[in-house]
Amino acid sequence: MSNLPTIAWIGLGIMGSPMSENLVKAGYRVTGHTLEQDKLDRLAAAGGTAAASIAEAVRDADVIVTMVPASPQVEAVAYGPDGVLENARRGALLIDMSSITPQTSVDLAAAAKEKGIRVLDAPVSGGEAGAIEAVLSIMVGGDQADFDEARPLFEALGKTIVRCGPHGSGQTVKAANQLIVAVNIQACAEAVVFLEKSGVDLAAALEVLGGGLAGSTVLARKKDNFLNRDFTPGFRVDLHHKDMGIVTDAARNVGAALPVGAVVAQLVASLRAQGDGGLDHSALLRAVERLSGARI
Question: What residue stretches are annotated with the 6-phosphogluconate dehydrogenase NADP-binding domain (predicted)?
């Protein structure tokens, strides 16, 4: 254990709690901070240490991991007198695993460099189940040497771990991931409504579709959500709405047309406007049902 870097973990939500616990299981000493006392209690019960502030959590850490909802929260925990950059030691490695705009990651890396702190952007894909099972895909932006140093930590959290380029590259790839996932969920939702309205056995249909070219990780992971109308959040509509804003804005900046993505972004926004923002993103099925005249 003494040979492993000490970890500060900021943000213990749906993803952050199981991920930090997996580092504890791998033998890392993890000190965590979040705003919810029950999440701090959960980390302590798993063998980690709860900190009362960001400053307390990061002060002696070799590696600081942030896992918060969006760019404003990353900026809130990183900057200011009580933030990561003012309280972490020089030479520490800051790994931001949140899903934020690529530019926010680039700006954070530049600000951290002035403090002698190294940065990787390392957003993940796989949802709550992937976090619990430690099989996340991790897409990383930053220097190769820092990536190599962080790789053992990443291997305790995920299975597919790839450096995608310089700072911001991980976030760009994550934005593309969220585009693909949203379009895939929307296609699955439309297929479910079509199948049910046609009188087909839905469970049988999804089983055979999953074994053919239409099969996907999305269909495999969300099949039970569709069958049981269980939209307990593994990844909330609110967060996917945020991510679709990131990808459409980033695509506009580089001149990439996203015609299908733009439509799905609006469908996600409408689902959120109808009060379903706290549900799992598989609740796009509810939007299709509404459009099809089905009773919700």
Answer: 6-164
